[in-house]
Amino acid sequence: MLRQLKPCGKLHTFIALMRMSIYRSALNKLPRPLLIRLSYVFRIFASVIYRGNTVACPVCGNSFSKFLSYGSDVAFRQNVLCPHCLSLERHRLLWLYLQQRTDLFSGKVKLLHIAPEQCFHGRFKALQNIEYVTGDLESPLAEHHFDLHDVPFDSNSFDAVICNHVMEHVEDDARCMRELYRVLRPGGWAVMQVPIDYSRAVTYEDPEITSPEEREKHFWQKDHLRLYGRDYPERLAAAGFKVKEDDFVKALGEEKAERHRLQSQEIIYFLTK
Ligand SMILES: [Zn+2]
Description:
Elements: H1 2-29, H2 32-49, E1 55-56, E2 63-64, E3 68-70, E4 77-81, H3 89-101, E5 109-114, H4 118-125, E6 130-136, E7 144-145, E8 158-163, H5 173-183, E9 184-191, H6 212-219, H7 232-238, E10 242-246, H8 248-252, H9 254-259, E11 268-272
Parallel strand pairs: 5-6, 5-8, 6-7, 8-9
Antiparallel strand pairs: 1-2, 3-4, 9-11, 10-11
């Protein structure tokens, strides 16, 4: 019996590996707009394939047996991508933070959202209490297209700014931070999360590293221009922001962190002007 099962087990492992390899290759190679379109089809089946109640996504409110895997070769993680709304660990943490620690869902807020995340965009747009302005270099989700080095809005014109996982892509991050500080009104708040290597004291930059392969090796992704270290809040402060480091994931507790599959070391940098 065992001898009969063994090849079958191997076959299953082989098929599982092939599926994983095709899936990873698709995630890394298919253009993002196509992936987004495919995701609309996939999510119809996802609730059946991944039915269960082991993990829960606070963004879309669905629960599943597990999340999907996601990430580049150097940052691949299992059980992190919501099959319904495509939220990742950082999106789920930020959603909970915005709900519990800001006035975004209750106050009268004029929000500038740079590089709007797919999982947030429709939900923010539906909020009646906010005036929602979106911007990006080219994303079809954004209504204004511009370069973040020169933001085409008046100074002090927004109550809040959200700009996540952008600063690691731009040429001059200090200038982009100063631009977002400029358009934020005094008393306003901002969230500008980035990938951080917490083992590094100082942000790693090297203008000699320009090829996609080298950038992925050194900065975690083919289109990253730097890898931030623990000095990220100092860089934000240099642009003018008052920075509050909030270890919010700890406040949520281990049980919630595990159920929502959050990253235990992620700090929310809550910025004010
Ligand atoms: Zn979700």
